[in-house]
Each structure stands twice: as structure tokens, then as C-alpha cells.
Design a protein that fits this description.
By secondary structure, the chain is an alpha+beta fold. Helix content is 27%, strand content 36%. It is built from four helices and eight strands, in the order ββααβββαβαββ. It has a five-stranded antiparallel beta sheet, sandwiched between helices. The chain has a three-stranded antiparallel beta sheet with strand order 6-8-7. It starts with a strand and ends with a strand. The relative contact order is 0.15.
Amino acid sequence: MTTIRTERLLLRPARASDRDALHAIMRQPRAMAYWSTPPHETADVTAEWLDNMITIPPHEGEDFVVEKDGVLVGKAGFYRFPHLGYLFDPSVWGLGLASEAVGALIARAFTHHRLERILADVDPRNAASIRLLQRLGFRETHRQARTWLVGDEWCDSVYFALDRP
């Protein structure tokens, strides 16, 4: 798998040794507020999730951890093509890192993977993520209620798409 360098970031393949850094993010209620699972209670939960990320068959998806100045600050990629997902540590929210990382992934998805369309699913309460997708050119396609059962709470979804230019 490749690495991607942007002005401030390194997107690289995940490895088992990323468990603790990812768990430090994924255990935070704020970081996981709009994720498809509750915050990870143990590092073992994160390790299982990370193993699934590491073992994505290359023809099915491509997911990266995101580093800034050598520190893991999030993940972004395609767990399964063409479905885009990303998660960043709240300590770096508002710095434009998600936009930088996701923008690089979009370019790679269209040029290298030759995707015709990229899809994203966002909790409608996640205004920052909706704004990010809109800034990157995504358009809302539809909404659906009760799409994710996260813990004991049903969450809704707003679906977005971006077609290849």
C-alpha cells in the first residue's frame, strides 16, 4: 500500500502498533459522538477494529492513519469502496486537517482507483462533517431515519455523493 503526503500530513497504512494511539482517540466520547459505534471501552476493542482496517483487501478498500508531525491524529479512507470515512482527534479539529487529508483521498480515489462516485454517510447532527463534505464538492442525495444503532440510541443519516469530474 502506498503513502500519501500533503503539505502538513502523512497518510500511511495502519499497523498493529497504532493501537494505543487510535484507542486514545476512539475512547473519547467527543471524538466518537457521531461514529457508528460507541467510544471504545478497551484497547482490545480498538485492536479488533484496527485489525479489520489493516486487513482490507486492496481491491475492496484503502484506509489510512493520518499523522501530523509524526503524531497519529486520525484515520481516513475507504473501508469499502466507494464509501468514505474519517475520524480525527478533537485536539486537531478546526485546523483544516480533515479537509487536507480527505481532499488527497478524493484525488487518489478518482485518479488511481478510477472510482466513478464517492459516497459518505453522516449523522445529521454532525454539522462540521457536513460542511467539510460540502466544501469538497459533495452533494446531499437523501436522508434516512434510524440507520445506525449506536449503543442503545438510534441515529439518522444524511447521504452524500461526489461524482468523478
